[in-house]
Design goal:
The chain is mainly alpha-helical. It has seven helices and six strands, in the order H-E-E-H-H-H-H-E-E-H-E-E-H. It has a single domain, classed as Orthogonal Bundle (Jann2411-like fold). The longest helix is centred in the middle third of the chain and has 26 residues. The mean pLDDT is about 90.
């Protein structure tokens, strides 16, 4: 699989939880083979790209991964499993269906593990959970925490799925009419397909 700079991945979801789910792409009807998180290093760099961890935390996590590669590989595999559970939860919500109990359980377990390894920190303006650890599983905790926060938020009412691919996003349009994750990619691709089929029909 071709390796690409993770910083090139568009963050179109409107929330880190959806951007995490969108690290795997593909047409909505499949195949889903556009993988961005090829290994643990890509996962950690994505956390920085999505502004879920600051630079010093990235350094700590990558140093730990070099020291204990087997541990980081297990964390990477677990993150991909969590990503698919989160995808199914949010895709169900976007399509007005009930998420599977097992998928909600997987997300809840990762969230509980995240809080068990966090501490509350802040000042007069904001108090929030922070993680000060080099545990490789932090790469699961942060997306899981973002996922639960979104599920409990009123912003969930804006959740939509691209009509062309599997990507999810929060629709900020006034009349909730956004159809594509990106007009430049999926929107234009859909237009090109319609034009092709229209031309094919006329020639027949």
């Amino acid at each position: 699989m071709e390796e690409r700079a993770i910083e090139e991945l568009d963050l179109v979801g409107g929330d880190p939880a959806l951007d995490f789910v969108n690290t795997l792409g593909g047409l909505r009807e499949g195949p889903w083979d556009d993988e961005w998180l090829l290994d643990y290093r890509h996962l950690v760099v994505w956390l920085s790209h999505a502004r879920l961890v600051p630079g010093p935390a990235v350094t700590r996590l990558l140093d730990r991964a070099r020291a204990e590669p087997a541990e980081s590989r297990r964390a990477h595999a677990a993150a991909l499993i969590l990503r698919e559970a989160m995808y199914r939860v949010f895709a169900a919500q976007a399509n007005h269906a009930r998420p599977a109990t097992d998928d909600l359980g997987a997300l809840a377990n990762a969230y509980r593990e995240a809080l068990a390894n966090a501490r509350l920190d802040g000042g007069h303006q904001r108090i929030d959970w922070v993680w000060e650890t080099d545990d490789p599983r932090q790469a699961l905790w942060l997306p899981a925490h973002a996922g639960i926060e979104l599920l409990r938020s009123t912003r969930l009412a804006r959740l939509s799925q691209c009509h062309n691919c599997r990507w999810l996003f929060l629709d900020a349009s006034k009349n909730h009419s956004r159809r594509w994750c990106s007009m430049e990619t999926c929107g234009n691709a859909a237009k090109a397909r319609r034009h092709y089929h229209r031309q094919k029909g006329e020639s027949a």
